[in-house]
Amino acid sequence: LLIISAFIGLLLSLVAGLFLANRALVPIQKSWNKQVEFIADASHELRTPLSVMQTHLELLFRRPNHTIEQESENIYQSLNEVKRMTKLVGNLLTLARSDSSAQLLNKTVFNMGELVDKVANQFEPIFELKELHFTREIESLMCGGDQERLHQLCMILLDNAFKYTPPGESIHISLKKHHHSMMLIVKDTGIGIEAKDLPYVFDRFYRSDKNRARAEGGSGLGLAIAKWIVQAHNGEIKVFSQKNVGTEFYVKIPL
Ligand code: ADP
């Protein structure tokens, strides 16, 4: 009887051990799958500009007697693809660093109002060219944070508003103090996002309309980076949108 109960005890602890080991491995497996998916998506995104460039360069090579003027369209398109790839590689690096523990924010105390104003000034002439009605309401607010990253966050949100808002429509940016936090809001009356896509817009490489986003120069990484920047500042980012009505991004970061 003693031997049988010892055997059952051993068997039970073996089963429990295997069960616990399996449970511990699930998060590692999940994170591994995410990394594999990320590399596959990144490779796919890099392949597209590379093959477009290859086609343009082959055309140039086949017509050695053509002048630069005659081939200007080909050269222009190749340059566009190089720019797209440079931006993509920069975004991929940011995300890769955000995954590693080595990524630290370079925090200083600065005026967030001045930073938002500066980014808004940069966008103003581009908005004007597209005949977009641009307004702002920016409070002067001292905060502690990574200036470069918060600059990047404003750029991403305004760039998206620009890309997905047709001429004649409006874009509004505001920065206000709310209790012990700052509220950054970017609103547009653009094409909006369908309800089925809304839960995924912060996912890496997610684009609700791939063809349109690519035509606008997007690769679906902007909002993933925006979300990482906000979370690294212990803040939160939310989106509200309605198809053909417009989109609103709300960012709340402790001062
Ligand atoms: P992308 O580089 O494609 O713009 P983002 O990660 O910045 O990638 O955005 C993901 C997707 O969310 C976009 O492809 C687009 O479909 C949608 N989106 C983001 N911002 C807006 C906006 N202001 N209006 C409408 N759609 C938007």
From TrEMBL:
Q: Which GO terms describe its molecular function?
A: ATP binding; phosphoprotein phosphatase activity; phosphorelay sensor kinase activity
- Taking every annotated instance into account, which residue ranges of this chain make up the domain Histidine kinase? 41-255
Query: Which Gene Ontology BP terms does the record give?
Result: cellular response to phosphate starvation
Membrane association type: Multi-pass membrane protein
Provide the E.C. number(s) assigned to this enzyme: 2.7.13.3
Q: Which parts of the chain span the membrane according to its record?
A: 1-21
The record's subcellular location field reads: Cell membrane
Instruction: Write the record's keywords in alphabetical order, separated by commas.
Output: ATP-binding, Kinase, Membrane, Nucleotide-binding, Phosphoprotein, Transferase, Transmembrane, Transmembrane helix, Two-component regulatory system
Q: Name one GO cellular component term.
A: plasma membrane
* Catalytic activity as recorded in UniProt: ATP + protein L-histidine = ADP + protein N-phospho-L-histidine
Q: Mind telling me what this protein is named? A: histidine kinase
Which species? Priestia megaterium (strain ATCC 14581 / DSM 32 / CCUG 1817 / JCM 2506 / NBRC 15308 / NCIMB 9376 / NCTC 10342 / NRRL B-14308 / VKM B-512 / Ford 19)
Q: What is the lineage of its organism?
A: Bacteria, Bacillati, Bacillota, Bacilli, Bacillales
Q: Which residues of the full protein are shown?
A: 148 to 402 of 402
